[in-house]
Amino acid sequence: MTIRRLSLVVFVLILLYLGFSLGGFFRRESPAAERPASRGAAALKEILSGAELEPAKFPTKTGPRPGNGSPKRKVVTSDIDTVLQPGQMLVTGGYPTRAGRREFIMIAAERHPEPGYPDQIKLTARVMDLDPAAMGAAGLEDLESDRASTRQHGQIWEPEEAKGTLEALTSHSGATTLNRPTLMTKPGLPASITMGHDGNDDEFLLETMVGFAADGSGITLELEVKSITSKAAGN
Questions:
Q1: Does 98 or 13 have the greater pLDDT score?
Q2: Which of 8, 119, 201, 229 sees the fewest Cβ atoms within 10 Å?
Q3: Is pLDDT of 202 > 90?
């Protein structure tokens, strides 16, 4: 009887022990359930702290914004192939300006050898702005042109004529010299000069190729002159 009671007590104690152990197990929160959430938050924080954020990108329109675009440009060209003898001057142009006057370009060519450059050629140009009275004094009324493109449109002045006319224009109240560029080049090489004119962003572009004429004294001249202005000049 004593043994049976002792066995019963032991059995009860075992049950009580197991009950406390299981109860504690079920009451305890599983750390495994916390760790994934904790690691996820830390990882996200780490990613955001080191991220290089870019601004949102939206489709953009190409071309100038309304009201901000550059004005339309008018390009007038003159192509001339000729031979200039020493002292002669080629005159072309007659393009309208913003002020209602006309612009002309005058070009002379000469041999200009220097040490190391025995076949060098020097081009001397002059851009002039003339009113009707000055054009009449220089005999340039026939060169007045509103065409977008001309070919062989010009005059060749003989040396004395060139000298006298330029002297007269220099002192004429209706004539203004805008630019006097000089260009050194060699036969067979393309060369160009860009000149601002008319006191604004308009410009003259002179592109040329020169050579020695067969007569041994003249300079062959292939010339293209471009006058680039706003549409306001000469419409």
A1: 98
A2: 8
A3: no
pLDDT for 128-145, tens place per residue? 999 999 999 999 999 988
CA atoms in the 13 A half-sphere facing the CB of 232: 9
Pairing of strands 89-96, 219-230: unpaired
- Cβ proximity of 78 and 153 under 8 Å: yes
| pLDDT of amino acid 107 | 95
- On whether the CB atoms of residues 123 and 209 are closer than 8 A, the answer is no
Type of residue at 181:
P
What is the per-residue pLDDT for 18?
58
Question: Phi/psi class of residue 229: alpha, beta or left (left: φ > 0; alpha: ψ in -120 to 50)?
Answer: beta
Cα–Cα distance for residue pair 198/36, rounded to 1 Å: 77
Task: Give the other-Cβ count within 10 Å of 133's Cβ.
Answer: 12
How is residue 42 written in tokens? 């830390």
